[in-house]
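Suppose you are handed a protein chain with no further information: no name, no annotation, nothing but its sequence. What can you learn? This example shows the usual starting point.
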Amino acid sequence: MDQIIIHVDMDAFFASVEMRDHPELRGKPLIIGSLPHERGVVATCSYEARKFGVHSAMNIKEAYRRCPHGIYMHPDFYKYKAVSDQLHEIWNTYASASQTIALDEAYLDVTETAKDWAGARQIAQTIKQRTWDELGLTCSVGLAYSKTAAKTASEEKKPNGYFEIPTAEDFVSLILDRDVRVLYTVGAKTAEKLHAAGIHTVRDMQTNADQVIRMLGKHGRWLTELAFGRDDRKVKPYRPEDAKSIGREVTFQQDTADFEVLQDILILLAFCIEHRAKRVGLQGKGVTLKLTYADMKQISRSHLIAQTDSPVVIWRETANMLAQIEHRPVRLIGAGLYNLSGSPEERQLSFDDQFADQPDHDEKARKELLDRLQERYGLDFAANLEKIYHYEVLHKTVEYMRKFRARTSAGQFRSV
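A reasonable first move is to predict its three-dimensional structure. Written in structure tokens, the prediction is:
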């Protein structure tokens, strides 16, 4: 039997959850992300805000220029995650395999559960109805023969839409004279290359398939396959160990050249990373440091380590990398774990390992890091870690630390 795949995509998810919980926001241009006086971007926005040209990932200052009368809110990721869990519980009921793409999006293989196209259509409509009845939220659903076609179908009638693409011929007929950006994985840079070569539409891509492959290599071959409607990828259930990395970053409201406060902020990021890693049962064998300078130059550094999720190790490694880079004003700092796996591999312990990796030693070092922050900034970080894991609280804490340091003589602090 051919595949029957559903793609479910929530409509302006974060904004829709807030409008559900706060009816007074309905019908208004709501922008979720940074606030207008802050640095940052739009996470998502209501369809009313989109009428003014606001969209996800837009600089918040530009969003405010376009929509100064909009309502701006910080995101509440913990609330959105809880709603997401409820959504996926509904959707997964009807699928033999489910592939979570994001909090608000998933592919569902209903080939076996639906039996035929009519059954799949009924499942799709049931998903839409239950999502509304049980959670008060609308979603757009695409039903198709492939993953690419299902995603295209779910976009076709947004918001609160439903669309079917039963065959490859239907898919090609729908997109043939659209811009190449309609194809999965054609981003802005790829589209720019194709446009520069005179390839603007899917029809152009079909006609110039050999040229596309020469220009883009393996990716070009994949795109030409999609241009002809060929996509036999399976719905692959997400496993936490499939994640490539776990990271956390913060953007400062004002640039800072104080690398001592950056080292302190790395402590908080390390604990946030540990929290996320433990939540999905992963550890990493590599640590990354990411910086954006005031002039927007970005750098990243990485270092292989013994497998861990310890915030002490994450902080130590990132702090060492930070000490070795150019010291000038910084706009953003981030840290992460990569080379992830679900369980530690057996290995021969070195002499240092036998002492550095002992649980008692690690707990003592964890306490020392949090005590260090309390001594420097006067906050009980240990008692408030659970709150600091929250996106908004983390950013407010980091801003407090940055401003506190700016007001205080560096000589009053113990050196790192």
